[in-house]
Design brief:
Order of helices and strands: HEHEHEHHEHEHEHHEEHH
CATH topology: Rossmann fold
CATH class: Alpha Beta
Shape: globular
Strand content: 5-15%
Largest sheet: 8 strands, mixed
Structural class: alpha/beta
């Protein structure tokens, strides 16, 4: 019998208000399994404040602070300072914000938290639009995607800008740990959460969160669509530890991006040449990731190569 790799404890309870098939709900459930009950969450205005914490109820078995939309990074810096002042060294301080509250409205607070070297975990659950307020585009919305503010009527092509490279922005701050996670790969997800939990310093987790109503797909297909996101190279899985990158899922050859795109109504308007443009970009990004991984591995195997001073891996 295979060994159970996912913790059995449940810190997210029935009775929440998530939509059927919500990737953000799966992300929270798996995240808390790995972090455990000694956790304080800061959640800004987003889907999750509606899902779990409408006063006076909660669907979470950990302490939660509802913070302002733009303030997640600042709030977890304050929570960390308060916990340290009380001698609560074994408490996980975690910000859990959507892509709008991270890539757009909360970017300055995230940057400040990383620059201050706050000993906390910042989680961006990425459903690629402002879903709680009606599916408006965010900086993390992919190129060409339909949203209510990037319509596809009258020849409009969907979102004209590229998806913001949040991992690139975060890595420029030299965090102690950064990783991409996908609930469709629960074992990889849990291992990264547990690794982040045991590292000291600023940590960033970028979690893909498929959204059935916003992406326009059958809610029964969330896991399958999430797997396609990674196996086509749209959302590759990797981690950066001590400044060195390691890809955590490789499938030999990537599946065509068309398999992922045509499964969602938000991309239904794309023409063959649009899909090919996306394919070319994904292939180039994937090759860049593999190249960096090879280079980082080569440096790690060189005895004279010093470990980057900015990464702190002392266990809590």
């Amino acid at each position: 019998m295979a060994k159970l790799t996912i913790p059995a404890q449940e810190l997210m309870y029935p009775g929440h208000a998530a939509c059927p098939g919500c990737g953000a709900a799966l992300a929270m459930r798996l995240l808390l399994k790995g972090l455990g009950p000694r956790t304080i969450l800061s959640i800004p205005a987003c889907c999750w404040t509606v899902i779990a914490t409408p006063y006076p109820t909660t669907a979470l078995g950990v302490a939660v602070l509802d913070s302002a939309f733009e303030a997640t990074g600042a709030s977890i810096s304050g929570l960390r300072a308060g916990a340290d002042a009380l001698g609560l060294k074994d408490v996980n301080i975690v910000g859990f914000a959507g892509d709008g509250g991270t890539a757009d409205i909360g970017l300055q607070a995230l940057s400040g938290m990383l620059e201050r070297r706050t000993n906390a975990i910042y989680v961006m659950y990425d459903n690629e639009a402002y879903m709680n307020t009606g599916i408006q585009r965010s900086g993390a919305t992919p190129w060409g995607a339909w949203t209510t503010t990037t319509p596809t009527v009258h020849g409009h092509p969907g979102k004209p800008e590229l998806k913001k490279d949040m991992m690139g922005i975060v890595l420029a701050h030299r965090p102690a740990y950064a990783a991409t996670l996908n609930p469709s790969f629960a074992e990889d997800f849990e291992r990264k959460v547990e690794r982040a939990r045991d590292i000291v310093g600023p940590r960033f987790l970028h979690i893909l969160a498929p959204c059935p109503p916003g992406w326009k797909f059958d809610s029964a297909q969330t896991i399958a669509l999430g797997r396609l996101a990674t196996d086509t190279g749209i959302f590759p899985l990797y981690e950066v530890v001590e400044g060195r990158l390691r890809v955590t899922r490789k499938t030999g050859s990537l599946k065509p991006v068309s398999e992922y795109l045509t499964a969602q109504g938000r991309f239904r308007h794309l023409k063959p040449e649009d899909i090919e443009r996306i394919q070319v970009g994904v292939r180039a990004t994937w090759e860049e990731l593999l190249k960096r991984e090879r280079e980082d591995l080569s440096r790690a195997m060189t005895p004279s190569a010093p470990a980057p001073a900015e990464a702190t891996l002392a266990a809590k």
